[in-house]
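Attaching the record inline, Q. Sequence:
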Amino acid sequence: MKLRIDKLPKSDEDLQEIQREIESQHHHNDEPNIEEVLGELYSGIQSMEGRINNIESDSKKCKEEISRIYKILGKMLIALATNDQNEKIKNLKDILNLLE
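Structure, as predicted:
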């Protein structure tokens, strides 16, 4: 809000003039009605629910990827630790399947 008075008030009359100008520019009928407020709240809640669903979906995908990484690491550890060639080949094939 820009006041047309561009001087510092020096007297009570100046303060009253500023007060009148502010009151004339400020309308008390500009308050939003309850339906508008509820509509905005409802819209905000829907937006937040959408974001929550996206976050839950992303979280689920991350959990699945972490689980897959641990399976791969476990298979790699078995393949490195075993002396049985057939067991190494089996675990390396399992790793390839998990990576696809």
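Residues 34-81 form the longest helix (48 residues). The radius of gyration is 34 Å.

More tomorrow.
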